[in-house]
Amino acid sequence: DADVTQTPRNRITKTGKRIMLECSQTKGHDRMYWYRQDPGLGLRLIYYSFDVKDINKGEISDGYSVSRQAQAKFSLSLESAIPNQTALYFCATSAWTGASTDTQYFGPGTRLTVL
Amino acid sequence: QKEVEQDPGPLSVPEGAIVSLNCTYSNSAFQYFMWYRQYSRKGPELLMYTYSSGNKEDGRFTAQVDKSSKYISLFIRDSQPSDSATYLCAMSDFSGNTGKLIFGQGTTLQVKP
After folding, report:
1. Gap between the Cα atoms of B100 and B79, Å rounded
2. To the nearest whole angstrom, how far is the Cα of A96 from the nearest Cα of chain B?
3. What pLDDT shows up at residue B8?
């Protein structure tokens, strides 16, 4: 079984709809992240969470919200979807060792299309 | 100007070629430099990382960091069709234990048999 799972894998929705993307992990990591990937723009950080009670905005948080329901679950919501939120969304997790690089482990992605 | 710039390619090479992938950056506080590989319809996975300046080798892959020029490279020797993927550079200063990574745009590589 995959360590980081995302549901759904694909979603087509209409402008104005509320959408939730879910992420679960079995790696036991405290830190979780949401990114979006667009052609020519690479990965951009939306929100990140260092534990259940610690949630932080990333580079492009406008139009998005998140919920950390448990250590293993981190959800991303689009309250009112718009077409320019069409993108590939990735969840990632990492452990904090305090001594070396913070490797991030990515899920398989959710392809979201907003019509 | 983006903090990290990476030529998106696409880059197409014959099997066995040496591939050079590069990123430039503007933030002199970056200390950790990583390369992620992303296969089609998959999430990125860490390929290599280096700390500060210098070289690091792992099999056919060599990561190089030149902090004085704010330039990092990934070399792939004897490239194989299985190396066909998008390669993303990523960097962090890890100040305040944020663990935040800044990614380049990614370079798409195709290795032809």
Report:
1. 31
2. 8
3. 76
Cα A85 to Cα A30, A78, A113, B9, distances in angstroms: 27, 9, 8, 24
Phi, psi of A20 (to 5 degrees): -125, 130
Q: State the best of B34, B35, B86, B101 to mutate against chain A, taking most chain A CBs within 10 Å.
A: B101
Q: What is the DSSP string of A6-64?
A: EE-SEEEE-TT--EEEEEEE-S--SEEEEEEEETTTEEEEEEEEEETTEEEE-TT-TT-
Query: Locate tokens 């935040």: which residue?
Result: B100
Phi first, then psi, for residue A109 (nearest 5°) are: 95, 155
Interface test with B, best of A3, A30, A37, A43 (most B CBs within 10 A): A43
- CB burial string A54-78: b at 16+ within 10 A, e below: ebeebeeeeebebebeebbebbbeb
Residues of chain B short of pLDDT 70, as ranges, are 1, 94-99
Query: Does residue A36 contact residue A46 with C-beta atoms inside 8 Å?
Result: yes
- Tens digit of each residue's pLDDT (9 = 90 or more) over A21-53: 999 999 999 899 999 999 888 899 999 998 899
